[in-house]
Amino acid sequence: MKTVADTDLKRLEDLIINGQKAIETRFTAIEHSIVEIKADIGEIKADIKEIKQDVKSLEIGQAKLTERVEGMDNRLKIVEGSQKNQIWALITILGGSLITASVGLLIAILRFVFFK
């Protein structure tokens, strides 16, 4: 027959073994979680790298668009300047024509009045 001390020692041994198994199970779960976290971090790094490439591509596209808009702005300024010149030329021509027509009409009226 076993003594009380043997039974108590066996219970203590079982408690220690079971405690070690529980600790090992928890460590295994933690190690598995760490592996998953590292894999997730790797995916995040890959996503960040892809996003950086997309941002760089967008910046290049934006620079090209800015350049095109500036070119269009310069062409618009040239067209506006040209239109202003054309309008002033038209005003000058019309003004000259009105003056010529007025002088011609005045001469015709004067001839009519004085040389009837």
Report what the structure shows.
With 116 residues, the chain is mainly α. Helices cover 96% and strands 0% of the residues. The chain is built from 1 helix and no strands. The longest helix is centred in the middle third of the chain and has 111 residues, at 4-114. The mean pLDDT is 89. Keywords: Coiled coil, Membrane, Transmembrane, Transmembrane helix. It comes from Microcystis aeruginosa Ma_QC_Ch_20071001_S25D.
Provide key terms for this protein.
116 residues, mainly alpha, membrane, transmembrane, coiled coil, DUF4164 family protein, transmembrane helix
Q: In brief, what are we looking at here?
A:
This protein is mostly helical and 116 residues long.
Strand content: under 5%
The helix/strand order is H
Q: Based on DSSP secondary structure assignment, what is the total number of beta strands? A: 0
Sheet with the most strands, sense and barrel status: none
Number of helices: 1
pLDDT below 50 for ≥5 consecutive residues: which ranges?
none
Q: What does the average pLDDT come to?
A: 89
Radius of gyration: 49 Å
Cα shape: rod-shaped
Give the terminus-to-terminus CA distance. Answer: 166 Å
- Helix content bin: over 70%
List the helices and strands and how they pair.
Blueprint: H1 4-114
